[in-house]
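User: Please fill in residues for this 68-position structure.
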């Protein structure tokens, strides 16, 4: 089975809702630009997503780094 697809609205936290990560959409896009976050892929002209397994690996790596 292929991984679930996660969109920016589910990832980022905004004043009106909590996301998977406690950062803003701008921070996620900055991390992508800087190569610190997995690259998204296009689902359509205005739809971008990430594979859930890549996001889970990113979070696990952050946890591992912070426990050092």
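Assistant: Residues filled in for all 68 positions:
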């Amino acid at each position: 089975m292929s991984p679930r697809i996660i969109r920016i609205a589910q990832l980022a936290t905004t004043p009106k809702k909590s996301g998977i990560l406690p950062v803003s959409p701008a921070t996620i896009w900055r991390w992508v630009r800087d190569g610190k976050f997995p690259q998204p892929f296009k689902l359509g002209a205005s739809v971008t997503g990430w594979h859930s397994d890549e996001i889970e690996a990113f979070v696990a790596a952050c946890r591992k780094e912070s426990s050092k």
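For context: Helices lie at 8-11, 25-33, 52-66.
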